[in-house]
Amino acid sequence: MAIFYSMKKFIVLLWIGLLAAFLPVDCAAAVKLACLGDSITAGMGVRKEDCWASRIAKALDKKAEVGNFGVSARCLLFKGDRPITREKAYQDALAFKPDMLLIGLGTNDSKKVNWIHKDDFVDDYKEIIAEFRKQNPKLKVYCLLPIPSQEAREGGISRECIEKEIIPLIRQAAKSTKSRVIDLNKVMKNKGSLLVDGVHPNAEGHALMAEHILLVLKGKSLE
Q: For the SGNH hydrolase-type esterase domain, which residue ranges apply (predicted)?
């Protein structure tokens, strides 16, 4: 009798294994990828399908469920003028419970009104990552380095602040949280002609960013 049940168990397990082997790949659960950021992530100035997040969703197709949680004019600093953490989109991103998180913040933090709180930047960045990891301890985080933007007004977005202060602090936050860095600043270096207003990329700029992000996500580019 024991031999009979052992054989029966073996046949059932064999059948399950064969069934799994022949199931189409599409049956596997899609990876959930959240894009959290400002107007550059949201795709201000371009069609929805042309922004980098939408291009990534199209490229990955059924392999990933991509959520774009970008909100225009938002910053990372909690004491800043418009923190992303106060937005419904931020709560929606948390509820999305992503497997992968791409953070595209820092551009608006370079404004003088926000950068007076620069001592909080790394801790605030780390706290956002920690909050998402509470939802998913295995979460993979990618920190996007801001592109070389320049707002043409006093006290506005500062390219110098982005490059000399914000980018090093993002790298610091990424290292201390064991997150990856994606260098979009390098990708858009000397590409001022692709910024429609000195800040926001056009469709070609978004295509370049999406291409590089995909290379990093697929492990084909090391930063």
A: 35-208
220 or 195: which carries more pLDDT confidence? Answer: 195
C-alpha 102/C-alpha 143 separation (Å) is 6
Q: Residue 170: which pLDDT band, with cuts at 50, 70 and 90?
A: very high
- DSSP result, 83-105: BGGGSHHHHHHHHH--SEEEEE-
Q: Where are the domains of the chain?
A: 31-218
Rounded distance, CA 149 to CA 161, Å? 10
Q: In whole angstroms, what is the distance from residue 93 CA to residue 189 CA?
A: 30
Residues 6+ apart with CB under 8 A from 160: none
Classify domain 31-218 at the CATH topology level. Rossmann fold (3.40.50)
Question: What radius of gyration do the chain's Cα atoms show?
Answer: 21
Gap between the Cα atoms of 136 and 93, Å rounded: 12
**In a 3-state reduction of DSSP, which class is residue 198?**
coil
Confidence of residue 55 (pLDDT cuts 50, 70, 90): very high
Secondary structure of residue 5 in the 3-state scheme: helix
How far apart (Å, rounded) are the C-alpha atoms in residues 93 and 101?
A: 9
- Integer Cα distance of 97 and 169 in angstroms: 26
Residue 14 reports pLDDT greater than 50? no
User: Is the confidence at residue 102, as pLDDT, over 60?
Assistant: yes
